[in-house]
TrEMBL record:
Stretches the record annotates as Disordered: 299-319
Domain Aldehyde oxidase/xanthine dehydrogenase a/b hammerhead as annotated: residue spans: 207-285
Domain of life the protein comes from: Bacteria
Compositionally biased region (Basic and acidic residues): 308-319
Protein's UniProt name: Xanthine dehydrogenase family protein molybdopterin-binding subunit
Length: 734
């Protein structure tokens, strides 16, 4: 069966030298070949490319910010392509309609949706390519394709001995047309999905060769910093530009939409010049509220408006009328910063009538809109190069840092990197909203008969729609951007998706209660907000699961058994609840000086139960152990699931113990890790993660570890001290 290259090429004469296979479009007939950005329609969100040199490239449409898409999504392709994941080279996707997230109709990474939205399309892409390669080899050998099979990046002849590498077949495979349905590999035949695999980006990240946004270096690059108003909404009225321009290395000092930009030949010179900058601000329209004002406005709004009904079953009022006991509680959560370890940054270069940007962004298509807003360019004149992200948590869905870099680059006409300091990153963040919750429940005969939850606070879409709406219609002229944003808000829940950011996790209340009343009172004090890891689930999880613990205590029932009884008809909730209790040895006494708390929550389609074992040591809260059970459907990589759940737990514990952004007269009081503290390594608890073996469709794991750990810790502290804490952060001396 030996064949030299000349004979082989005769078989495929006239065929191009590479095979490019797109993902199969659900509901569309035929195979899409080649890269077709002009199609103007949604397509599945990644591309597969094979070359004559036996290279395999996977264009990754979801960014890598530590959550494991680089490995997990590549594994889906590898499984069906019959090639080891490490043989595939992922590449970050450019902006194109093909790469939009189907849930959001935008090219963004968020909501723990990467695996869920890619599960079938990516496997189909690998299966398509494999079948085309097999068909091509069969044509060369003049045998039936059904008699051949693919293995380890080669197509194997029916004799089981001879084989051909994929790279030798790409020219022929490009001519093949697949007709009919494509069969995906059954679960029992999987080699990589569900198996413990190392991360494909581990070596690059551990050796420093992975390129994050802050690592980008370009020829003749300069550095920019921006002095922003200390209060949101402040405007520049004057600054000592001439004095600062005279400093060594300073190239430009000028006003921008967000403040005053300083550009220098070196980053440290730009920073020193910023220190010498004296800016006069107009605060007449700036934010002026303090933290106390925010919660006072929430309580006033809640008193005046019962809110919009989000879920109503039975009659809560009748349940109250017939109740033996009615419990009420109010819970409050502060604003929270994202505190990504890589601060906001972007590099931009304006040349030849185009802008090229290198940025750690979760939404590159919104990045193009951000550039267009601050220049006379259109989105098609902008190229966004996505880098690795040093943390995202939702912060990098908002593109203000790209706007700044683009505005500066457009002025200086040189490649410029704009970097935020840690202090700027903290004081000019867009925060997780502060929220207020009013809870009521009715009990009769030891049974929970009614549940009422009033959520008070803003909606994130109000702040996000500014760039999101134009990104959905990149062909629209810029004068329509403002109108598109307004229309998007007006059509919310009708022509556009409903904003669930305030109510998610509350309306999915899982417990069996006949009378349910869940409402949202929409009020916005004007503090900039955006998505934060687990979004609304984070604050609703605390309110729901803390109140459930209070109800269990009032009923005189064990908190685990109380919950278990109320989810007895929900097998997936029940499974994780039982498994977490088992991992934590719930029925055995906690060690002296410690206590346990439990919480159960479903977010982003993933079921999680957690038990926290905590105590108070040297006047501080100490978390010793967290036992967690998770059901995220079919697991792609168990190690990544464990890592993400543990990361979410530590992220949630940081918020529970330390997280708090406060304002005085509109000015954020925190600035760096000394006063916006993160959990340190020595504080890290033992974390046990049990993964439910499931064949259900996969769901996300990047965020579901966060919501239950916060109430579980609070419930443990109540079990320890007998004092219930209804506001965050939790305190040892409460």
């Amino acid at each position: 069966m030996a064949m030299n290259r000349r004979d082989f090429l005769k078989v495929g004469a006239g065929v191009s030298g590479g095979l490019v296979v797109s993902l199969a479009l659900p509901g569309c007939a035929g195979i899409q070949t080649g890269y077709q950005p002009e199609a103007g329609e949604w397509r599945p969100d990644a591309w597969l490319e094979l070359t004559e040199n036996d290279e395999v490239f996977f264009t990754l449409a979801r960014v890598e910010m530590g959550q494991g898409t680089y490995t997990g999504l590549t594994t889906l392709i590898a499984e069906e392509l019959e090639i080891k994941p490490e043989r595939i080279t992922p590449r970050f996707a450019p902006v194109a309609p093909e790469y939009r997230n189907p849930l959001y109709k935008l090219q963004l990474t968020g909501g723990s949706t990467s695996v869920a939205t890619s599960w079938e399309p990516l496997r189909m892409a690998g299966a398509e390519a494999r079948l085309m390669l097999v068909m091509a080899a069969a044509r060369v050998w003049n045998v039936e394709a059904a008699e051949c099979h693919a293995s380890e990046g080669r197509v194997v002849h029916p004799n089981g001995i001879d084989s051909m590498a994929y790279g030798k077949l790409v020219e022929l495979a490009a001519k093949e047309v697949v007709r009919g349905d494509i069969a995906l590999k059954p679960r029992k035949e999987w080699k990589y999905i569900g198996k413990q695999q190392g991360r494909l980006d581990a070596r690059a990240k551990s050796t420093g060769t992975a390129v994050y946004g802050i690592d980008v270096e370009l020829p003749d690059m300069v550095y920019g910093v921006v002095a922003r108003p200390p209060r949101h909404g402040g405007r520049v009225t004057g600054f000592n530009g001439d004095e600062v321009r005279a400093m060594t290395g300073v190239l430009e000092v000028f006003e921008t939409e967000r403040g005053v930009a300083v550009v220098a030949d070196k980053y440290w010179r730009a920073r020193k010049a910023q220190e010498a900058l004296s800016v006069e601000w107009d605060f007449s329209e700036a934010l002026s509220v303090s933290t106390e004002d925010v919660f006072e406005s929430y309580r006033t709004a809640a008193d005046e408006d019962s809110g919009e009904s989000e879920r109503s079953e039975g009659s809560f009022e009748r349940a109250v009328e017939g109740a033996e006991r009615v419990l009420e509680a109010e819970y409050a959560q502060p604003y929270l910063a994202h505190a990504t370890l890589e601060p906001m940054n972007a590099t931009a270069w304006y040349r030849g009538g185009r802008m090229e940007v290198w940025a750690p962004t979760q939404a590159p298509d919104l990045g193009r809109i951000a550039v267009a807003r601050v220049t006379d360019l259109g989105p098609d004149d902008v190229t966004i190069n996505t880098t690795f992200l040093g943390g995202g948590f939702g912060r990098r869905l908002t593109q203000d840092y790209i706007e700044e870099a683009a505005a500066v680059a457009y002025r200086v006409r040189r490649p410029v990197k704009v970097i935020w300091s840690r202090e700027e990153d903290t004081r000019h963040d867009l925060y997780r909203p502060a929220m207020l919750h009013r809870m009521r429940a009715s009990l009769s005969g030891g049974e929970l008969t009614g549940w009422h939850h009033q959520i008070v606070g803003p909606q994130i879409l109000d702040w996000y729609v500014r760039n999101a709406a134009p990104a959905q219609y990149p062909w629209a002229p810029k004068f329509m951007y403002g109108t598109l944003g307004k229309v998007g808000l007006m059509a919310e829940g009708i022509a556009t998706p409903k904003d669930m950011s305030a109510i998610e996790g509350a309306i999915e209340y899982p417990y069996q209660v006949d009378n349910i009343d869940i409402r949202h009172t929409h009020t916005d004090p004007g503090v900039p907000v955006t998505w934060w890891r687990s979004v609304g689930y984070s604050h609703n999880g605390f309110a729901v699961e803390t109140f459930m613990d209070e109800l269990a205590h009032e009923s005189g029932e064990d908190p685990y058994q109380f919950r278990r009884r109320l989810v007895s008809s929900e097998p997936r909730h029940l499974e994780v609840l039982d498994q977490a209790a088992h991992l934590a040895n719930w029925t055995s006494p906690a060690p002296q000086g410690r206590a346990r708390g439990i919480a159960l929550f479903r977010s982003f389609g993933t079921y999680v139960a957690q038990v926290v074992e905590a105590g108070i040591e040297n006047g501080a809260i100490r978390v010793y152990k967290v036992a967690c059970a998770v059901d995220c459907g079919q697991v792609v990589n168990p190690r990544i699931v464990e890592d993400q759940i543990e990361g979410g737990i530590l992220f949630g514990l940081t918020a529970a113990l330390y997280g708090e952004i406060t304002l005085e007269s509109g000015q954020v009081q925190q600035s760096n890790f000394h006063d916006y503290q993160l959990m340190r390594q020595y504080e890290r608890p033992e974390v046990l993660v049990g993964i439910v073996d499931s064949a259900e469709a996969p769901t996300g794991v990047g965020e579901p570890g966060v919501p239950p750990v916060i109430p579980a810790l609070g419930n443990a502290l109540f079990a320890l001290t007998g004092k219930r804490q209804r506001s965050l952060p939790l305190r040892a001396d409460a």
